[in-house]
Write a structure and sequence with these properties.
Blueprint lengths: L1 H9 L9 H5 L7 H25 L8 H8 L4 E3 L3 H7 L3 E4 L4 E4 L8 H12 L5 H13 L4 H22 L1 H9 L3 H17 L3 H15 L12 H9 L13
Parallel strand pairs: 1-3
Antiparallel strand pairs: 2-3
Amino acid sequence: MSVICFFYVSWGLNYFRIPLEKHIAKEFLISEEKVEKLTLFFSVQCNKLKQEINSKHNKFNYLNSYKSLIESESQKFKYSNFSLILSYMGIKGYYNPFTNEANVNSRIPKILIPVTIYHELAHKKGYASESDANFLGFLKAYNNSNIEIQYSANFFALQYLFNDLKKRDPSLAKNIFESLSTDVKNDFLVISNFWRDYYNRFQITQKKIFDLFLKSQGQKKGINSYNEVVKLLIFTFDGKNKFILDENVK
């Protein structure tokens, strides 16, 4: 009981914080057309940024800028000592409210590292909602001056939007995927292969447990809460509603 009390007093009450969606996108409706347009936008951005990255670095060294990101944020997060276990559990990172540490799985593909770091740091700042942490993680990387980190953000958004569009209209999603450069497609493949290599039956149980935990904390959609970032992305980039929050969102 004392552990539970400490959890809520130290950080857990953040689960009752009003999510960003209620502030900025409460009445906003998602249409297939909006999903398609934004998916296409990020596909173009990914192609462009990937080309810039490849012209800036050779293929063996093009993600070195992530090292500077990690060094600049090194006092705020750490690579987990349990990264192998996290990989088998299908987890990219987690925030430990008892030690106030943002932990990142060191084994995940490098392209996932920037947004994952910022996602967990958003939790550390008190954003318990997974959709909020996803959005703020994206936003922090998207606004970074470094093109490699920008690419990580754009690729992150493209993944979520592509998966949403694929459910709505597989043929449209396929057409956009085919428009991606070989290098961007390869990043999809690298991530897919990574999770495939670590996939195991225990992940199903782990996801069910985490799903129940999130629902018990007021996140009604459970693990599907992560996908709610699509609504925030579309609201942010949709015509008159377009805005970019600064990195110190309160």
